Amino acid sequence: MDFPRGFVAQTARLGLRDLGDDFAVVVSEVPASSAGMFTQSLFAGPSVTLSRPRAASGRARAVAVVAKNANVANGEAGVRDAAELSELVGAGTGVDPEQIVIASTGVIGRPYPMEMIRSGLAGLRSSAYDSGPLDVARAIMTTDTVPKVSSLSAGQVRVLGVAKGVGMIEPDMATMLAFVFTDALVEPDLLGRLWRRAVDETFNCLSVDTDTSTSDTAVVLANGLGGAVAEAELAVALCEVCRDLTLQLARDGEGATKLITVTVTGALDGRQARRVAKAVVNSPLVKTAVHGADPNWGRVAMAVGKCHDEEGIDADRVEIRFGEVEAYPARPGSEGLAALASAMRSDHVGIAVELGAGVSTATVYGCDLSAEYVRINADYTT
């Protein structure tokens, strides 16, 4: 799998992880349009604060990522280090630093080892741009177990995305790092609208553990070398690539053994549908029930009931299904519980909730909660 026309990449080992590359840069060889969405955390790192206006300018043409160190909560020194990183990448690639989106992911509160970074990036100019999307996806991983890449054609152009993220995922934008590249010809304003829609329908519908990262970055670059494509066609391709990445992120959630999708129908509006769906997918009791294949539909009812301040929801009109099997209001006997348990043993558990309050719908994505999640995060910095 290759990048779309006009995009080249290289990865490098800076020494932040024990083995393998921990830095990646992707560059458009020609000017590009750009759009981005970022974390709304009050502790947003300097990579985010530097990159927001660069992506919003519509002129960014490169992304550079440092893995295993978030460079967050390091005060003015962290800001200076992020700016220097940007300058180093600019010097090595020949791209104006103001057109480079930088991102960092990893432990919060540890300063960049700048001598190591300077040394590692010294050969950036002479290195060949011979890395592929999988190389980039691997280089930006932290506790991910697999690299995440997705690609789709839209007419004569291609849309390709790479992403990372398995924990600290509860979107308040898009909780992880995701970068999408396309050779479609599209103006920055339109690209921004299409990108916001794609992120809202995919990454913002993802949750692993209800915690929003300080470093969330989702950026798209479009260099136009493939020519123009119909707006609707490009919109679908962007959404589908992002949705595929979202499902990959959910499946690879820290300690996850099962993918969960929750679809809420019959809501008063989209906001209500998403809120109720998130209440279900984020419930530790629902997540542990899914992990154990326990057909405890009462936990789903509990999660819906937590949204007590939502108008129009009446418990007597609510319906709950696991897969194709009705759990409520059927109140299944032993045969029905066996069918529900069978649905719960799948590696993809679908939960459907009909509210009976309106016509709006939403689907969100998550994963089960296992003892392995606790182990990973209990030992994260040790």
Structure notes:
This protein is α+β, with helices and mostly antiparallel strands. The protein has two domains: 7-251, L-amino peptidase D-ALA esterase/amidase (4-Layer Sandwich), CATH 3.60.70; 259-378, Ubiquitin-like (UB roll) (Roll), CATH 3.10.20.340. 34% of the residues lie in helices and 26% in strands. It has eleven helices and 14 strands. The chain has helices at 46-56, 75-93, 114-121, 133-139, 188-201, 231-251, 270-281, 284-291, 297-305, 334-344, 371-378, and strands spanning 7-12, 23-28, 33-38, 62-69, 100-107, 148-154, 157-164, 177-184, 217-227, 259-267, 319-322, 325-328, 348-354, 360-367. It has a five-stranded mixed sheet with strand order 3-9-8-7-6, with helices on both faces. The protein is globular and about 70 Å long. It starts with 6 loop residues before the first strand and ends with a helix. The model has no long low-confidence stretch (mean pLDDT 92).
